[in-house]
Amino acid sequence: MIEEILKQEIEKCLAELYSATEQSIQFQKTRKDFNGDITLVVFPLLRASKKGPELTAEEIGNYLKEKVTEVAGFNVVKGFLNLEITQEYWYNQFVLAYNTNDYGTVKVDINAPTFLVEYSSPNTNKPLHLGHIRNNLLGYSVAEIIKASGKNMKKVQIINDRGIHICKSMVAWQDFGNGTSPESTGMKGDHFVGKYYVEFDKQYKIEVADLVADGMDKKEAEKEASVFKKAQDVLRSWEAKEPTVIALWEKMNAWVYEGFKTTYERLGVDFDKNYYESDTYLLGKKVIDIGLEKGVFYKKEDGSVWIDLSAEGLDEKIILRSDGTAVYMTQDIGTAVKRHEDFNFSSMAYTVGNEQDYHFKVLFLILDKLGYEWAKSCYHLSYGMVDLPSGKMKSREGTVVDADNLMEEMVSTAKSIAKELGKLEGMSDEDANTLYETVGMGALKYFMLKVDPRKRMLFDPKESIDFNGNTGPFIQYTYARIQSLRRKHIAKIIIPGAVAITSKEQEIIKLLTEFPNMIQEAAANYSPALVANYVYDLVKEYNTYYQNTAVLTAESEALINFRLGLSVKVGEVIQTAMRLLGASVPDRM
């Protein structure tokens, strides 16, 4: 890479001109309003030169132009040295990239330490919704990017299959289900169970309102409602492993898992291992017993178990209720310990919304206090919530944006727009339906992932599927355009030894050379947004080039081969980048 070449030569320059060693050498991209390909920040070097920034930059620039064949020229703007790199260097970089398979990615060493990424983590009392879509797409993409950076990566999830919320759906089905099932009603399993979670909330509100109308305090009424007491009884029976309750729990969970499977398949995400809260909370209880013996935790008079983190700037946190039942922290402790036993991971990232920031600070601190060295390698991939133009979602009231419905809406919208734009000529119905799916799901994934994960985002389905602008369909269309070029040129592409390249071609090659480092940066920052915005910049640059440059009708065979080869490599990078975002690209569009 040019940075490495320049760094070595600048070190020699500093030693020769100023007798300086071990200086901070900083590069940045050259601003578009100045000539140059890479900029050296001169200010950190002034202590060594003992001269002003302009003179220091001039001296270093003259040295590099004389000594380094890759440097064609330079200009100085205040304390910045803008270096112009030769066309020969950029062309050679293109040839190297063109001849590299899986360009930008690093082959995984399966013997290297494992890097875990957790995402999804659904409850088994309702279907996946819009929030789960951002979680799944973000977690999956981060995992794929980390894998592309060369890490031995595994994807995991924790399924929240126990607790009072699960029991609410069970009670409602018993009271109102009349023995029906997903099969008998034709409903998807997770939708079927979710319906009864909503039914429970409706009944609960009615009972609370009646009790309040009879003169009871609202808080007391919320505890005394008969349907709520039933749910509490079911939870106690479940923890006591009462056979009929366990059988119902297993049956309803199985319905949900079948529904989740369908959603995950369409969303294009997968997992290497599933963990279940119903298992890991028991391990968590055992770890808590060990923590009590070590003095990490303490018991209150009512028998509840706590940890005092006030010395760390936090507060007291309950770890186990007075009746011995687990809280979320209980199972998270158990899950983390179990995962390290299973994978001996070097790092683990939890993909969970930023409303749980405090929870994960506490979890990692507890694990550290328990003596687990690997706790320092746990990371909370905290992301912002998703809003819609219509407002927030509420699961209990049944006002969530269902994941399945949203995916179907995206594909349906893609179909309408494709027909309007006349992009279906000569396509069979099967190919057209595949295209709708590719474009609709690509639009959804790209729009969700182009935003910095830490930011709250507004998801507008109509905006996401626009064929112009910073969208998935815009990028997919460019890829399809490149494949059309390739189909028209039947002969094998033979990259010439050298050709004169234009400034626009040089800009595209520069972008291509950034791809490997960009993947490493995206992996280090857990940010698919870096990949999304990189590929958008590449596509914008290429489209301008395509619209103003003859490719297949260039004036020489050498130029035709070079320009087509450049186009094909751009297409390969688009495909790889979109794959890292979980999205496909169509050959025709």
CATH class of the domain at 411-580: Mainly Alpha
Q: What overall form do the CA principal axes indicate?
A: globular
- How much of the residues is beta strand, in percent? 5-15%
> Given the helix and strand composition, which structural class is it?
alpha/beta
Average per-residue pLDDT, rounded, comes to 93
Order of strands side by side in the largest beta sheet?
A: 7-6-5-11-12
Query: How many individual helices?
Result: 21
N/C terminus separation: 36 Å
What CATH architecture of the domain at 411-580 do you see?
Answer: Orthogonal Bundle
Task: Please tell me about this protein's structure.
This protein is α/β, with parallel strands linked by helices and 589 residues long. Among the domains are: 2-85, Gyrase A, domain 2; 162-269, no CATH class; 411-580, Isoleucyl-tRNA Synthetase, Domain 1, CATH 1.10.730.10. It is built from 21 helices and 14 strands. It has helices at residues 2-18, 46-49, 53-67, 87-98, 130-148, 164-176, 182-185, 189-213, 218-224, 226-239, 243-267, 277-294, 328-343, 357-369, 403-420, 429-449, 461-464, 472-488, 503-524, 528-548, 557-580, and strands at residues 26-28, 38-41, 71-77, 80-85, 114-118, 152-159, 273-276, 298-299, 305-308, 316-320, 347-353, 378-383, 386-387, 457-458. A five-stranded parallel sheet has the order 7-6-5-11-12, with helices on both faces. It has a four-stranded antiparallel sheet with strand order 1-2-4-3. A three-stranded antiparallel sheet has the order 8-9-10. α8 crosses α9 (218-224). The longest helix is centred in the middle third of the chain and has 25 residues, at 189-213. It is globular, with a radius of gyration of 29 Å.
